[in-house]
Amino acid sequence: MSKKNVWNAAVFGRIFAPQKPGFAGLRPRRCRAVARFASPPIPCASSLCAVFFMALFLLALWGVQPLSAENLYTVENIRFVPQTFYVGDRVELRLTVRAAASVQLTPPKNLPDISWGEFHDARVIPREAHREILIVFTSYETGSHTIPAMKFGDIVLEGLIAGVASLTDETFRDPAPHRGVLLLPGSRLVIALIAGILAALPLTFAAFRIWLRPVVGRLAAFSRERRPYRKLKKELSHLRSHIAEMDSRAFYISLLLSVKTYLTLRGKGNYLAWTTREMEAASCESLAYAAKSQELLSMFHFGDEVKFGGRTSSREKRLLDLGLVTEFSAKLEKGQDSHVYV
Asked: CA nearest 123: which of 134, 112, 137, 139?
């Protein structure tokens, strides 16, 4: 044993070994002999306690797991609205999150890009007892698609699957048989009516030319013949309604002009250019001396005296002349005295 080891053994032996009366008076030079016969060192009680508490601390560190955000929240009630959706549908994914107040829950700043669809919105909706995450997207492909991980503050959503349904019957493999043209209800009747009308147009045109055209011609001629009479009746009605406002000269100028216009349109002579004497000569040549025609000529003579001679007439006289013209034109239209002024 070296001198240093012997010295250390002597010193530790004196510290830890029990003191015996025989060793108390030994001198230092005899320490080598004493160290040989000294017992092994025994640790003190304070060191043992320190080691014991250190072991308990290490065991506590080994058994206690650190708290993370994953242990402070739960995600539940995952649902799609609508439950069954197809390509092109706007779908809402709703998740209920129950978390401690210390867990930050904020919507992502940027929405991820997906090859099978498009994200429209992602936000957090606070409720009374929980918070709700809303993700809106549209899928453009059928099948099951994994929604990429999205970070909402302290929470990361991942592993969510969106199943896009297909309108195609998966069990159908063969092409559908050929079908005829589908017609709306009543289409056959409408087609038959149109075809009948188109076929009847030539027959109608032929019948019009053969039978209806003469009838239409006669009706048109009758309407043309009656047109002067309708015009005369309208003018006579106007004179009768304004008889009190017109003087004698203005009244007979209007009355005689209306009668001459009617006879010109109704007959074959130009009565508008004839004087009363010429009208009387034409009546003598045609031997048309009906009672009303003579009275009508007398009315023309009286009207000339009023227009050019300053003669006046009473209201009763003018009403009688209006009645004379009305009766004369009515008989002429009915065919009586049709030779007068024709």
From this structure: 134
C-alpha distances in Å from residue 147, one per residue of 93, 131, 177, 181, 312: 10, 20, 40, 45, 112
The domain boundary residue, chosen from 14, 36, 63: 63
Average pLDDT across the chain, whole number: 76
Confidence category of residue 44, pLDDT binned at 50, 70, 90: low
Strand partners, 178: none
- Scored b (16 or more CB within 10 A) or e, 20-43 reads eeeeeeeeeeebeebbeebeeeee
Residue 173 belongs to some domain of the structure: no
Task: Tell which residue, 259, 268, 260, has the closest CA to residue 338.
Answer: 268
3-class secondary structure per residue, 191-248: HHHHHHHHHHHHHHHHHHHHHHHHHHHHHHHHHHHHHHHHHHHHHHHHHHHCCCCCCH
Q: Does residue 330 share a domain with residue 229?
A: yes
Same domain, 21 and 127: no
- The answer to whether the Cα torsion of 249, 254, 259, 265 is positive or negative is positive
Tokens 């309108």 found at: 167
Q: Is residue 180 part of a domain?
A: no
pLDDT tens readout for residues 285-338? 443 445 567 888 889 999 999 988 888 889 999 999 999 999 888 888 886 444
Q: Which domain holds residue 49?
A: 3-63
Dist. CA 172–CA 5, nearest whole Å: 96
3 state SS for 91-155: EEEEEEEEECCCCCCCCCCCCCCCCCEEEEEEEEEECCCCEEEEEEEEECCCEEEEECCEEECCE
- Residue 318: CB partners within 8 Å, gap ≥ 6? 243, 248, 251, 252, 255
The CATH number for 287's domain is 1.20.120
